[in-house]
Write a structure and sequence with these properties.
CATH class of one domain in chain A: Mainly Beta
CATH superfamily of one domain in chain A: TonB-dependent receptor, plug domain
Radius of gyration of chain A: 32 Å
Strand content of chain A: over 45%
CATH architecture of one domain in chain A: Beta Complex
Number of helices of chain A: 9
Oligomer: heterodimer
Radius of gyration of chain B: 23 Å
Helix content of chain A: under 10%
Strand content of chain B: 5-15%
Strand order of the largest sheet of chain B: 2-4
Largest sheet of chain A: 22 strands, antiparallel, barrel
Number of strands of chain A: 55
Distance between the termini of chain A: 61 Å
CATH topology of one domain in chain B: Serine Threonine Protein Phosphatase 5, Tetratricopeptide repeat
CATH topology of one domain in chain A: Ferric Hydroxamate Uptake Protein, Chain A, domain 1
Chain lengths: 988, 476
C-alpha cells in the first residue's frame, strides 16, 4: 500500500534548489526534508495522498499524488508570508504560529491623525484598545486603556519602542499619560498590541495593562530611499458649548430675584461671547519629515528628521518638536552583528493658560475691555463670574522645554544552527525644565497679582536596562521551535529641583530668572526630591509548532522589584497557550470560500508594580514647622509624613482568553475574535486606614487588597477586494467590556469604599465599591420639579428645598430624604467601543474614512454642576421652572444651592460616533514620476474630527478619566479641534 | 544582586529612626505644634463651632461649601466631611505628640536634661489639648497612647480619657513647663505653665468641677504673667500678637501653610473686595442687633461691615451675594465679616498670618468669675466679671455698667452673656451652652436636638471600618 515518491524542489524564479524544505503527507506526521540538491524521497500511505511542500519565506504548495512517483515542484516567494511576522517582546514569531491575542497596525495608519503623539492614531484601530483624547491642548497625552480598567491605580499599558521599555514619560516622571511623543509617526514601521496573558506574560511585572510594541523603520536592501513628507493643517474649535448670551443671562438673573423689576433691563444689556473671545480660528499645525534609508550587504541604515509645530486654538498654548532617528546594523564579523536604535527629541511646550472655565463662567454682560479713566487707554475690564479670560491669557507665561533620548545598543552573535545570543543596553534619558512668570498686574480685586513672580523647575530622569538573551529558532522536519531565555536588570532614577521668587526687577523675558528677584528669603522657595527603583528579571519563552497545526507557547518570568520589601520582593508570572490551525487538518472540509482557520486559548498571570518606590516606607519629613517668637519666625519641625506598608507585594492579573482567526473568500475577508476574562487580585490600592491610627485626613496607604474583573468580547472584520480598476477595503472592529469590583479591602481595617470624583468644590460624585464598576457615579435620583408648596410638604425633601426645586427620590422609602437615599447613577466605562473604516481607490485616487465611537457610557457634567458664585449658565437653563412656566425638568432660577447637589440631573450620555478622519489622496502615475526621477508622489487633503454624532453637551464626549476612580467628569477641558489639512509624500 | 533591589528612601527619614538626638527632639516637638496650623484641625477647616452657635451663620454663597450648610441647622450626619477631617487630624496631632512623649524620655537620646523635661511637658500639654478637643467634640473615642495602635480598639469613655490622659497631661505640663516670662522672646508661642492651668480651668468648668476650675483660674490670675490689653481690639490684633493678654496662641505667617501660614483666618476672610478669603462663618444678624442694643463697642471691634475701612483698605465684599437679605420684608442677614481674624497688609496671603488665640486672659477672668459664682462667692466673681466689662467700656462711662447682681442664677446668666459678647467667634459659645445645659433653650430654635447634638457624630467611615466596634453616637 505504501507509495514511494521522489522529486526535487526549486525556487520558482531562480530555479535554485531549496535546501531543508519540508514535505509532509497532509493530515499525518509523516514527512521529510530536502537535501543539498533539493531532492527528497518519501513513503506515503496511498496514491490519493496529498503532499504539502513548505519552506520558510515561501508559499506552501499542496500536490495530490495521483499515482505519480516523481513529483517535482517549485515554490513562490511569499511576500505576504514574509510580512506576517509578529513582533513580540524579546523576538518575533510567524503569524501562523501565534497563539496570543495580538493586533498589528502598520506605520502608515499612524499618519492619519495630525497630532504629536502617535498613540492618538490608534483610536478605533485595535479591538479592545480604547484611546481617549480628553483635551485639544497641543501635546496633551491621550488616555489609553486596554481591555477595560484592570487596576485601581495606573492603567496605562506598557510601551516598548525597539525593545526599550517606556513606563512613563521619558522626561516627565509624573507617570500620567502616554509617553510616546518623542517619536515621529513617520519613523514607525509597525505597532503590535499585545492583549492576552500569553503575549504579555513575558513582560511579567509590567504587562498587566497590556503591552504596545513599536518597531521603527530600518533600511531595506537596495538603492537608498529618500522620503519627504509635509503636512499643513488648520484647527478650529470642534463645537462650542451653548451658553446664555447677555440678554438671556440678564433675564435668568432677573428670574432668580422674583421681585419686579429685576436687577437688569434686559433690552439694554450687551453681550460678549467669551468662547469667541478666547479661541483662535485656523490655528496652524505643521509637520515635516525627511528620511533616508538603505542597506548594503553588511550595513543597513535609516536616518529620520522631523519637525512638528502646533499652535493651540487658545493663545499662548502650543508645541514645537524636533525629532531625530538613527537605526543601523553592521555585520562586523561573520555571524556577529551590532546595531543601534536611537531617538532624540527636543520639545518646547507652551502650557495653556487655564482659561476655558474662566470663559465658560464669565458673565456675558461684561465686556473684555474698558477705558482707563485716568489715561484714556484701553485696559482689561473687571469681569464677574471668575475673571477676565483675556487678561489671564495675557499674564500667563508657562513654558516646558525638554530633551528626550531613547536608545538601544546591541550585539548579537549567531552560533551552531539556530542559536543566537544577544546583549543589549537600553536607555531612556530625559531632562525637562519648566519656567513660569507672572507679572504684577491689577484687573480687579479678585484678579490681580500683587508682586511679579517666577518659578523654575528641573527634572531629570534616567532609565537604564541591560538585557541578555539567548534564543533558539529552528525548524526540524515538522517541528518548529522558537525559544528565548534571558536575564535583565534595570535601574530607574529621577530627580526634581525647583525654585521660586518674587518681585522681579523688570517684566521683560530677559529678567525671568530667580536672581532678578528682590532676594527676600521669605518669598523664595526651593524644593528638591528624588526617586529610584530597580528590577531584576529572568525570562523564558518556548514556542513550538507541530506540522503547522498544533501550536504551543509557554512563558515564564520572575521579577524582583525594589518597590517591595524583602518578604515579597519577587513575583512569578507564567503563561500557557495552545493554538490549532484547524484548516491544516485532513478532515477540514475543502470548501472554496473558507481559508485558514485557527483556534487559540491562553491562560496566564501578569503583574503590576506601578506604585511609587517609597510606598513601602512610613516616612518622617522635616517640612512640618511651627512659628514662634515675638518677632515671628518659621522654625523647622518634623513629623510623620506619608504612611507606608512594608508588606506590599505584586498585583496579579490572571487572564483567560479564547480566540478564533479565520479568513474567507481567498483572503478577502479576514477576521479575528476573542473572548477574555481578566481578574486582577491583590490590587495595589490607596486606602484610608482607620482614623485613630493618626495618619491624618485624606492620608492613604497602599494595600494589596482589591480585586477587579473585566470580561469582554472583541472582534475585527476586514474585507478587501478589487472590481476592475476599483479597489476597496472595509473594516469593522469592536469590543465590549464589563467591569466589576470583586473585593475592596473589607475586614482589614481600611475604608472599603473609595469616594472620588471631586468636582473642585468639595462635592464628590464618584465611588468605587464591591459589586459595581470602578468609579461609578453616585448621588440623588432627580425625578422632577416641585410644583406646589403642598407637594413639597408632602414629599421627603432636603433642608431648604422649596417650590421649583428638583425632587429627589426617597430611594429607600423611609420617608426621610438624606444621604442614605443616594444611589448608583451611572458608569463611565463604555459597554462597547467600536471603529469602522473604509477606503476606495480608483487609479491614483483614494478616499479613506475612519469612524470610531462608543456606547453605554455616562459623563458627569461637572462644569455645569459647580457654582462658586453667580456664573454664566448653559442654555439648558433657559427653560427653567417659573410660576408661569411649570417645567418638570429644569429647576427654578438659582445661583447655587441644593439643586446642585450631586444627582443624575448632571449626568449625560457619553455615547458618540465620530468621523475621525476623511482623506482624499492622489498618487501620481509612474510616467509622470519618471520624468522627475521620483518613485512615488502622493498629495492629499484630510479632515479630522469633522463630524461627531452625540447627545453630550460638552466640547467632546471623548473624555478620559486620568484616574479610573473618578469616572469621566467634564470639569471643563481644552476643547478638541477640527483640523483641515493638506499634505504630500514624496519618495526618491 | 540582591543589593541592587535595596532602594532606601531619598530625602526623608523612615519612621522608626527618629528622634535620635537633641535636635531631632526639638524637630519632633515643633512637628506637634505644626498640627495647630493644619487647616483641618480647626473643626475640619471651617468654624463649625461658631456656625453651630447663635453667633455665626455658614456664610460664603449658597453654592459654596454646601457640605457645611447642614451644621448651621444641626442637620449634619455622620457622612459630612468636616467632622471626619477634624477627627482624623486630631488623631494625627495626637500621634505626633505620642512620638515625643514616648521617645524623647529615652536615655539613649543624649540631650540637655532641662530641655528634655520641657519638650516632653510641651508635648503633653499639646496632647492634652488635642484630646480635649476630641472628647468635647466626639465624646467616647478610642484611646491611643502609642504611635502604632492596634487595629481592633473600641471606645473609651470621655470621663476615663479625662482622668487617664487629659488631666494628667495638663497637670504634668502645669508642673514642668516654664512660665511665659521664663521663655526667651523668640520662644513665644510655646506652651507655658499658665496655658496648662488655663486649659485645666476651662476643662474643669466643662466637666462641672468648679472647685478645680476656680483653683486653676485663680492660679493663672495670681501668676501675674497676664493682664488685659487696655484696648479690647488689641486682644486679637496683629500688633499685639503674643501680647499681655495672650495665654496660648498659634503663631502664623502671611504665607501658605508650608511657609508658616494658617488658613483658619483665610477661611473666614472677606470674600470679594478685598480678596482675603472664602467668607465662611459670617457673624449672625441677631448677635449684631443684641450688641447694638447694648451699645457695646466690642461689636465694632468684632465685625467688619461693608464700607468699613481697615488699615486703609475698604471692604466691598462679595458682589455675587446680596448685601442685605430679607424675609417677608424683615432683615435676616447682612453681609459682614469676622474682624477678629483681620490681618493688615496688602495681599491675599495676609489672612494666613492671623494668630488664632486659643486662650486669652479675658476668658480666664470670666472662667474665674463663673467658678466663683458656682462656688457661692458672688462678690469675688463680680470683681473679675467687671474687670472684663470695664475694659470693654473703653472709658465710656455711659455704657456697659458694672454688674451688681449677686443671686447665683442671675449672675450665672450675666457671666454667660458676657462671654457671648467678649468671646464671640472664638469657638467657645457652643461649648458654653452645652456645658451649662442651655443649648436646647438657646439653640433649639436653630435646630439643636437635646441628647444628640451635644456631640458630633463619629465619622461613618470609622464606624464602618471598625465594623461597629466603634459605635455611633446617640441620635446619629
Amino acid at each position: 500500500q505504501d507509495f514511494k515518491i521522489s522529486g526535487t524542489l526549486l525556487d520558482s524564479e531562480t530555479k535554485e534548489a531549496l535546501i531543508g524544505a519540508t514535505i509532509i503527507e497532509k493530515g499525518t506526521t509523516n514527512g521529510t526534508v530536502t537535501d543539498l540538491e533539493g531532492n527528497y524521497q518519501l513513503m506515503v500511505s496511498g496514491s490519493e495522498a496529498v503532499l504539502v511542500f513548505t519552506y520558510l519565506g515561501y508559499s506552501s504548495k499542496e500536490v495530490r499524488v495521483n499515482n505519480q512517483s516523481v513529483i517535482n515542484a517549485s515554490l513562490d516567494i511569499d511576500f505576504s508570508e514574509l510580512e506576517e511576522v509578529v513582533v513580540m517582546g524579546y523576538g518575533s514569531v510567524r503569524k501562523s504560529d501565534l497563539t496570543g491575542a495580538v493586533a498589528s497596525v502598520k506605520g502608515e495608519d499612524l499618519l492619519k491623525v495630525p497630532n504629536a503623539s502617535p498613540v492618538q492614531a490608534l483610536q478605533g484601530k485595535v479591538s479592545g484598545l480604547q484611546v481617549l483624547s480628553p483635551s485639544g491642548d497641543p501635546g496633551a497625552t491621550p488616555v489609553v486603556r486596554l481591555r477595560g480598567v484592570t487596576t485601581l491605580n495606573n492603567n496605562n499599558p506598557l510601551f516598548v519602542v525597539d525593545g526599550v521599555i517606556i513606563e512613563k514619560g521619558v522626561s516627565d516622571n509624573s507617570g500620567s499619560g502616554t509617553p510616546l511623543d518623542f517619536l515621529n509617526a513617520n519613523d514607525i514601521e509597525s505597532v503590535e498590541v499585545l492583549k492576552d496573558a500569553s503575549a504579555t506574560a513575558i513582560f511579567g511585572s509590567r504587562g498587566s495593562n497590556g503591552v504596545i510594541i513599536i518597531t521603527t523603520k530600518r533600511g531595506a536592501q537596495g538603492a537608498p530611499r529618500i522620503n519627504f513628507n509635509a503636512e499643513l493643517g488648520w484647527q478650529v474649535v470642534a463645537n462650542k458649548i451653548d451658553l446664555m448670551n447677555g440678554k438671556e443671562f440678564g433675564q435668568y438673573v432677573n428670574d432668580i430675584d422674583l421681585t419686579e423689576p429685576g436687577p437688569y433691563n434686559v433690552d439694554q444689556l450687551s453681550s460678549t461671547d467669551w468662547q469667541d473671545e478666547i479661541y483662535n480660528d485656523y490655528a496652524p499645525i505643521q509637520s515635516y519629515s525627511f528620511s533616508f534609508g538603505g542597506a548594503s550587504e553588511k550595513v543597513d541604515y535609516y536616518f529620520g528628521l522631523g519637525y512638528f509645530g502646533q499652535e493651540g486654538i487658545l493663545p499662548k498654548s502650543g508645541l514645537e518638536r524636533i525629532t531625530t532617528k538613527i537605526n543601523t546594523n553592521y555585520e562586523i564579523a561573520k555571524n556577529l552583528d551590532i546595531g543601534l536604535s536611537l531617538s532624540v527629541a527636543l520639545k518646547e511646550k507652551q502650557n495653556s493658560p487655564g482659561v476655558v472655565n474662566t470663559a465658560l463662567r464669565a458673565w456675558p454682560i461684561d465686556a473684555p475691555y474698558t477705558t482707563d479713566p485716568a489715561t484714556g487707554e484701553q485696559i482689561f475690564a473687571e469681569v464677574q463670574g471668575g475673571g477676565n479670560a483675556l487678561a489671564a491669557i495675557e499674564y500667563t507665561n508657562n513654558v516646558n522645554k525638554s530633551i528626550e533620548s531613547v536608545g538601544n545598543v546591541f550585539a548579537q552573535y549567531a552560533f551552531l544552527d539556530g542559536f543566537s545570543v544577544k546583549s543589549s543596553l537600553q536607555f531612556s534619558l530625559g531632562m525637562s525644565k519648566n519656567k513660569s512668570f507672572t507679572p504684577e498686574y491689577f484687573v480687579a480685586p479678585l484678579q490681580q497679582n500683587e508682586t511679579s513672580d517666577i518659578s523654575q523647575s528641573y527634572n531629570d530622569n534616567s532609565f537604564v536596562l541591560w538585557e541578555n538573551t539567548i534564543s533558539y529558532v529552528k525548524e526540524i522536519g515538522v517541528h518548529r521551535f522558537n525559544t528565548v531565555a534571558g536575564y535583565t536588570t534595570q535601574r530607574v532614577k529621577s530627580e526634581f529641583l525647583s525654585g521660586s521668587a518674587q518681585n522681579l526687577l523688570r517684566d521683560g523675558e530677559s529678567f525671568w530668572y530667580i536672581d532678578a528677584s528682590d532676594g527676600d528669603p521669605l518669598l523664595q522657595d526651593v524644593s528638591n526630591n528624588a526617586s529610584h527603583s530597580a528590577i531584576q528579571s529572568y525570562l523564558f519563552r518556548f514556542n513550538y509548532s507541530l506540522m503547522n497545526k498544533y501550536l504551543f507557547t509557554a512563558t515564564y518570568r520572575r521579577d524582583g522589584s525594589s518597590k517591595f520589601g524583602p518578604n515579597n520582593r519577587y513575583g512569578v508570572f507564567p503563561s500557557l497557550a495552545l493554538g490549532w490551525n484547524l484548516s491544516e487538518e485532513a478532515f477540514f472540509p475543502e470548501v472554496s470560500f473558507l481559508g485558514n482557520v485557527k483556534l487559540r486559548a491562553s491562560w496566564g498571570i501578569v503583574g503590576n508594580d506601578k506604585i511609587s518606590y517609597d510606598a513601602q516606607f512610613p516616612q518622617i519629613d522635616q517640612s512640618f514647622g511651627a512659628v514662634f517668637g515675638q518677632n515671628e519666625q518659621y522654625v523647622a519641625g518634623a513629623a510623620y509624613a506619608t504612611g507606608g506598608n512594608p508588606n506590599l507585594k505584586w498585583e496579579e492579573t490572571e487572564q483567560f482568553d479564547v480566540g478564533l482567526n479565520f479568513d474567507m473568500f481567498n483572503g478577502r475577508l479576514v477576521s479575528e475574535m476573542d473572548y477574555y476574562v481578566k481578574t486582577t487580585n491583590d490590587i495595589l490600592v490607596n486606602l484610608e486606614p482607620i482614623g485613630y491610627t493618626g495618619l491624618g485626613a485624606f492620608q492613604q496607604i497602599v494595600y494589596n487588597v482589591a480585586s477587579v474583573e473585566n470580561k469582554g468580547f472583541e472582534f475585527s472584520l476586514n474585507w478587501q477586494d478589487d472590481i476592475g480598476n476599483f479597489n476597496y477595503k472595509l473594516g469593522f472592529l469592536g469590543s465590549t467590556v464589563k467591569n466589576t469590583v470583586l473585593e475592596l479591602g473589607q475586614d482589614i481595617g481600611v475604608d472599603s469604599l473609595i469616594v472620588a470624583g471631586d468636582l473642585g468644590n468639595g462635592q464628590q460624585v464618584s465611588r468605587t465599591a464591591v459589586g459595581q464598576p470602578i468609579g461609578f457615579f453616585y448621588g440623588y435620583d432627580a425625578i422632577g420639579v416641585f410644583q406646589t408648596q403642598q407637594q413639597v410638604d408632602a414629599t421627603p425633601h432636603l433642608f431648604g428645598q422649596t417650590v421649583g426645586d428638583l425632587i429627589y427620590r426617597d430611594a429607600n422609602e423611609d420617608g426621610i430624604l438624606d444621604g442614605d437615599d443616594r444611589i448608583m447613577l451611572g458608569n463611565s466605562i463604555p459597554g462597547l467601543v467600536y471603529g469602522f473604516n473604509t477606503e476606495v481607490g480608483y487609479k491614483g485616487f483614494r478616499v479613506g474614512l475612519d469612524f470610531q465611537g462608543q456606547t453605554g457610557v455616562d459623563i458627569y457634567n461637572g462644569k455645569q454642576a459647580v457654582r462658586f458664585s453667580l456664573l454664566n449658565y448653559e442654555t439648558r437653563f433657559l427653560d427653567h421652572w417659573t410660576p408661569s412656566n411649570p417645567s418638570n425638568e429644569n429647576f427654578r432660577a438659582v445661583s447655587g444651592g441644593t439643586n446642585y447637589t450631586p444627582s443624575n440631573y448632571f449626568i449625560e450620555d457619553g455615547s458618540y460616533l465620530r468621523l475621525r478622519t476623511v482623506t482624499l489622496s492622489y498618487s501620481f502615475q509612474q510616467a509622470v514620476l519618471n520624468s522627475v526621477g521620483a518613485q512615488s508622489l502622493k498629495v492629499y487633503v484630510r479632515g479630522t474630527n469633522l463630524f461627531t454624532k452625540t447627545q453630550f453637551s460638552g466640547y467632546s464626549p471623548d473624555l478620559g478619566a486620568s484616574s479610573a476612580l473618578d469616572g469621566v467628569i467634564d470639569r471643563g477641558v481644552y476643547p478638541i479641534t477640527k483640523v483641515y489639512s493638506v499634505g504630500l509624500n514624496l519618495t526618491f | 544582586c540582591e543589593e541592587n533591589l535595596e532602594k532606601p528612601l531619598l530625602g526623608s527619614l523612615t519612621a522608626g529612626t527618629f528622634p535620635q538626638s537633641e535636635s531631632d527632639a526639638i524637630l519632633a516637638v515643633n512637628g506637634v505644634y505644626n498640627s495647630l496650623r493644619v487647616w483641618n484641625i480647626h473643626t475640619g477647616g471651617f468654624p463649625l463651632l461658631d456656625i453651630m452657635s447663635d453667633q455665626m451663620i455658614k456664610g460664603s454663597n449658597p453654592g459654596d461649601g454646601t457640605a457645611i450648610a447642614p451644621y448651621d441647622n444641626f442637620s449634619h450626619t455622620a457622612t459630612e466631611g468636616s467632622g471626619d477631617r477634624w477627627y482624623k487630624t486630631l488623631y494625627q496631632a495626637i500621634r505626633r505628640a505620642n512620638l515625643v512623649i514616648n521617645e524623647v524620655p529615652n536615655a539613649e537620646i543624649v540631650m540637655d536634661e532641662e530641655l528634655r523635661v520641657r519638650i516632653v511637658a510641651e508635648a503633653r500639654f499639646l496632647r492634652g489639648y488635642f484630646y480635649s478637643q476630641l472628647v468635647q467634640g466626639f465624646g467616647a473615642v478610642p484611646l491611643v497612647l502609642v504611635t502604632d495602635p492596634a487595629l481592633d480598639l473600641t471606645k473609651t469613655s470621655a470621663e476615663e480619657i479625662f482622668n487617664q490622659v487629659i488631666y494628667p497631661d495638663l497637670l504634668h505640663a502645669a508642673e514642668f513647663l516654664p512660665e511665659k516670662s521664663e521663655y526667651s522672646a523668640d520662644e513665644a508661642g510655646r506652651a507655658t505653665k499658665g496655658a496648662a492651668k488655663a486649659l485645666l480651668a476651662r476643662l474643669y468648668l466643662f466637666n462641672g468641677d468648679f472647685v478645680n476650675a476656680e483653683k486653676y483660674a485663680l492660679e493663672v490670675i495670681a501668676s501675674a504673667q497676664y493682664e488685659l490689653e487696655p484696648n479690647f481690639a488689641d486682644a486679637f490684633s496683629y500688633d499685639h500678637e503674643f501680647g499681655v493678654e495672650s495665654i496660648f496662641e498659634i503663631g502664623a505667617l502671611p504665607f501658605p501653610f508650608d511657609q508658616g501660614g494658617n488658613q483658619y483666618g483665610n477661611t473666614m476672610g472677606i470674600r470679594g473686595t478685598p480678596n482675603r478669603g472664602w467668607g465662611f462663618g459670617r457673624p449672625a444678624y441677631p448677635w449684631i442687633l443684641m450688641m447694638q442694643a447694648n451699645n457695646d463697642p466690642r461689636m465694632d471691634a468684632s465685625i467688619i461691615f461693608l464700607g468699613e475701612v481697615l488699615d486703609g483698605v475698604e471692604t466691598g465684599g462679595d458682589a455675587s451675594t446680596p448685601d442685605t437679605t430679607r424675609v417677608d420684608g424683615d432683615i435676616v442677614e447682612i453681609e459682614v465679616y469676622n474682624q477678629k481674624i483681620w490681618h493688615p497688609g496688602p495681599g491675599t496671603n495676609e489672612s494666613f498670618g492671623h494668630n488664632k488665640r486659643i486662650i486669652r486672659y479675658a476668658d480666664v477672668l470670666l472662667m474665674a468669675a463663673e467658678a466663683l459664682n458656682e462656688n457661692n462667692k458672688p462678690a469675688e466673681a463680680l470683681v473679675y466679671l467687671n474687670e472684663v466689662r470695664e475694659r470693654a467700656r473703653g472709658g465710656n462711662a455711659g455704657i456697659l455698667p458694672d454688674i451688681t447682681v449677686t443671686d447665683q442664677a442671675g449672675l450665672r446668666l450675666a457671666i454667660e452673656n458676657e462671654r457671648n459678647y467678649e468671646l464671640a467667634f472664638e469657638g467657645l459659645r457652643f461649648w458654653d451652652l452645652v456645658r451649662t445645659n442651655r443649648a436646647e433653650t438657646v439653640l433649639g430654635p436653630l435646630g439643636f436636638v437635646k441628647d444628640k447634638n451635644e456631640l458630633f457624630p463619629i465619622p461613618q467611615s470609622e464606624v464602618d471600618i471598625s465594623e461597629g466596634r466603634i459605635s455611633q453616637n446617640k441620635g446619629y
